[in-house]
User: Fold these one by one.
Assistant:
Number 1:
Amino acid sequence: MNRISKRLSLCLAALALTVGGVIAAPTAGAASAADCAVRVSDSRLWCENGAPAILRQGAYHEAPITGQLLSTYSWFDCWTSGGLHGGNNTTWYHTFGDWIAPGYDGWGYVPADWVYTTGSFDADPSAHGLRHC
C-alpha cells in the first residue's frame, strides 16, 4: 500500500469513528432507568435522556428534524412503533423540544435508545401507563 493510500485509509477510519460517536446513542446507567416513571398527575413519562437528542417529525431516522431536546431530564406524552434504532427495538417516544427547527412546531419523536428506560419498559410502554400515540 503506498503512502497516499495509507493516509487516506487512516483519515477514513478516523472519520468513521468520529461520525459513529456523534450519532450513537448514549448509554444509561442503572440509576437513570430507576428514575423513569409515568406520573399519575399528567400521564407523562418523565425520564433522563441523552442530549442533545434530535426530534423527528415521524418515528424513523429519515424523517425531517423538528427540534432537539437539550435537557437531560424530559417528559414524553406517548409512544409509537417506528423504525429500528440502536436500542434494537422500534419504540419511539413523543415530546416537545427545547429547541424548535425553523418551519416546525417543535413536537417530535425520539428513538427509545436516547431515553433511559429499561428494555422491559420499551417492549410495552402501555403496560407501564404511557398511552400509545
Number 2:
Amino acid sequence: KTANSNATTTTVDVERSFSFGRDYVSNRRHRLNASSVTKGMTVAFYSKNDMIKPGMLRKWKQDQRKKGKEKALKE
C-alpha cells in the first residue's frame, strides 16, 4: 500500500509540473530556448511556493538594468 501511494503522489507531482510548464510556455513565449524556459519555470516555482522574499526579483531586475546601462556606457 505504501509503495502505491508514493507512486500516486509522484505521478501527481509530475503531472502538475507538466501542466505548469504548458501554462508557462504560452503563445507569447513559444520561441524561448530551453535554458530560458528552465530558468523562468524555476523562478516561477520558487515564487509560487513563497521561497523568494518580497522585493527580491524587483531588486534583481533593477540591478540587471543598471549593469546593462553601465556596459552600454563603456562601449
Number 3:
Amino acid sequence: MSIMSNAKRALAIAAASATLFSMAACGSSNAAGSKSDSSSAASSGKIEVVASINQWGSVAKDLGGSNVEVTNIMTKTNVEAHDYEPTSQDVAKFGTAKVAVVNGADYDPWATKAAQSTKATLVTAAETAGIKEGDNPHVWFSAKVRSNTADAITAAYQKADPSHKDDYAKFNKDWHAKEDQLESKIKDTSSKTENLPYAATESVAWYLADDLKMTDATPKGYAQASANESEPTPADIKDFQDTLKAGSIKMLVFNSQEANSTTDQITGAAKDANVPIVELTEQMPKQYTNLLDWMSALVDQFAAAVK
C-alpha cells in the first residue's frame, strides 16, 4: 500500500471533479435557489455539507476544515441505517446543502433520494469504487473506498468554493498522509492475519478483513441468511456453533449493533470454544470523531485477537 505521489493525487482529484461536473450537468433539480440558503453556514461563507452517516461526515469535516459546516443525519450506534426513516427536517437539510455525502450501495437510499432532488453536488462513496446495489454496502471499512471518496469530496469542495482550492488540496494531502499510515498498519498486521479463517455474525467488517487478507469462513447457510436480512434456520445456527466448537474458526467478528438471541448463541459458542471475539458496530462510536482513528483502533483489535 504505497503512498500516492502528489502528482497522482492531483490527477485523482481532477478525475473526480470531472465526474462530479458530468453528473451535475446531466442531473435535474427542483431545489430552491440561493434565496433559501439562509443557514449559518451560508451566511458565514462556509460550504454547507450534509452526510448521511457520521463516519463519512467525519471525513468531510477533515477535508474541509474551517471552510465547511458538516451536518450528520445519523450519529447513533443503535439506529439501523438500512431501515432509517428520515424526518422532514432531515430532508430539508439536504435541500440547503451545497455538497451531500452518502454511502450508496442501497445502504442509505433515503439519503440518495433526498440529495438527488436538490442542487447539491452528490458524492456517493460506493460508486467511487464501482460498488453497486447488492454488493456489501459497508464500504467505509475499505481502504480503496475511503481514499476514492476523499478525493471526490475534495473535488466537490473545489467546485463549490474555487477561491479556497489550494486549502482543499492541502487538507486532502494531510488526510491521505493519515490514511497511508493506517494502510501501513493494516499491511503490517496482515503479516499476522493473512489467510486466518474468521467468521462473522454479520458481514459488516468484510472489507477490513479483506484488506487484512483474512479468509471468511462463516458457514454458508448462516452467511446467506445474514446477507438476505432473514433469520437463520436452527440448522444454520447449529452448524455455526459446531464449526466454532471444531476449532477451525480462529476469530469471530461480532456486530454488537445487531445483537439478538441468535447472536447470543453464536458468541456463547465462541466463548465456550475459546475463539477470540472482535466486537464492533456499523456506525462510528461516539468516542471517535475521526473515521481513521476508529479504523486504526479496530485494526488493533484484530491484531490483539490473533492467537
Number 4:
Amino acid sequence: MSVNPISSGLVIPCRGARLSSTLVRLKARVIGKTRTKANMGVDRMQWGAEPWQFADLHMPDDPSPFQNAAGVPCVMLIHGGFWKSAWTSELMRPIGDDLAEAGIAAWNIEFKGWSDGDEGVWMDTLSDVLRAWGQLALLPGIDITRSMIMGHSAGGHLALMLASKAERRPWLTIAQAPITDLIAADHANLSDEGDAVRRWIGAGPTEMPEVWRQLNPVDHPADVSILLVHGERDEDVPKEQSETYARVMKAKGVEVQKLWLPGDHYSVIDVASDDWLVQLNAIIDWL
C-alpha cells in the first residue's frame, strides 16, 4: 500500500500511486467546470414498497478510467440531517454527479427518518440502509469488490454502523463530519432542538441504555478501512466527535485515517469547495 501526501498535510493510504495524468485531468474537470446535468446518467430505483425505499444510481460515461472486467467502483451515499425525514438524499445529489463525472458510480440512498409524531424509527432506518447496501450488490456493471460508503453527519453515523455490522464489508468507509458518540451528542444538545438523537431512538440513554450502546459507533470497532473527514470550523457536529472515535478506536487496536479540513459542516459536501476536491482526490487515490 503506497502513501499519498495530500494538500492538508495528512497522509491517506491508497491502493496505488495513481496521482498522475488521470488525476490531473480529473482535477481540471472539477475546478471551474461547467456541465450539463441532462447528460448525467441517473436512474431512480425503487427497491422497496415504502415511498422512501429508493436510491438514485449515478453511472459514469463508458468507458470509465477505473473500469475493469467486473465493472466500475461505486460509492454508496448516505445523507445527513440528524436522521430527520425533512432532509433527503437531494443533499448528496451533487456529490453523486461529481463522482460519476470522475468515472465512479454513486448509489445515493434514501431511508426512513423521524418526524414529529413518528419517532423511535431507528430500526427502520438501519434496516433501510442495510437493505440498500445489499441492493447495490445486485446492480449490473458495478464492481462490488470496490464498493465504498460515504456518509455525512448522521449519515456518517450510519456509515460507521454499517461498516461494523454489514455482512459484506465496504472496501472503504468515509465518514464526513460524523456523529460517532451518541451519548456525547445528546449531552451537547446537537441538532436544532438539541434532542434529535433521543427522538430518533425514541427514548433517552438512561431509559434504553442497551439500545443506545448498540447504536453507538464508538462501541463497535469496524474491521475495515475508515477515513474520518471533519472541518475545523464545524459548529453543527464538532470535530471532537471524530477525534473521540479515532482515540477510542486506537485504544482498541483499530487504526483509522483522519482528514481534517479548513471548512465547516457543509463545505465537506459542497462540490464547489476545495474541501470536497481533497476528498475526491483521496477516493481516486484509493482506486
